[in-house]
Amino acid sequence: MKKDRVSIYLSEDIKNEWIRFAKNNNYSTLAKFLKEAIEFYIEYKSKAIVKNKRIDIDLLSNLSHEFKEPLTSVKAYLQFIIEEHGSSLEGDVIEMIRSAFNQCLTLEEKIIENLESFETQKGGNTLDKNSQYDILIIEDNIETVRFLTTYFKRKGVSCKGVFSGFKGLNELKIFVPKLILLDIILPDISGYEIIKRIREKSSLKEVPIFFLTAVPSVEVEKKVQELNATGAIFKPFNLEDLKILYNYLK
Description:
Helices cover 57% and strands 8% of the residues. By secondary structure, the protein is α/β, with parallel strands linked by helices. It folds into two domains: 12-122; 135-248, Rossmann fold. It has a five-stranded parallel β-sheet with strand order 2-1-3-4-5, sandwiched between helices. Helix 5 links the parallel strand 1 (135-138) and strand 2 (159-162). Helix 3 packs antiparallel against helix 4 (91-122). The longest helix is centred in the middle third of the chain and has 32 residues, at 91-122.
């Protein structure tokens, strides 16, 4: 079997964190950890299909989240190296880094696709299809959803709040709101990936989408342009920040 070696460049802090984790959990190499994680995921999914039993979606969601947290960090560091130091690295080195980055994207896509298929099988959305509202809030912080729902209700604006990305995507299959407030860091799928999927649907292309996030503005403002978002509201926000939304609720 042909095997390729992939080198990953990490900061000193991340490296030290991995060393502590590896020592406490008896992992001699990062490759061993990734191999076990991927084998476990494949075995878990295969057994579920063969036995035709209902999946514990919460367990699978947590498992996916645990995979994507380190994967996101690795992907981000690889992208940073490519963008900031690509011109100064030798050709074969930068190609290896690009290859590793593309493998990260492939793995992330597979995790997302499989989790979404289980979420769809579960059929978790019980909203009456006749229900209508003005704003869909995709945000995992319960207090933020409660505040926004209460605030907008007093202004005569109705809201629907969901606490994960896939629930938000499923919700949009049922009803198209006037506006979407979208957190970026969610437990199952990033807001960046969500908006990509939304904009692929012809019925959702024109829906105003505002990121609602604590992610630094420098990054988010670039993503607003890149992903065709309408704008962004940064946490901690105040009531003045919300006024711009009324322009899209007419």
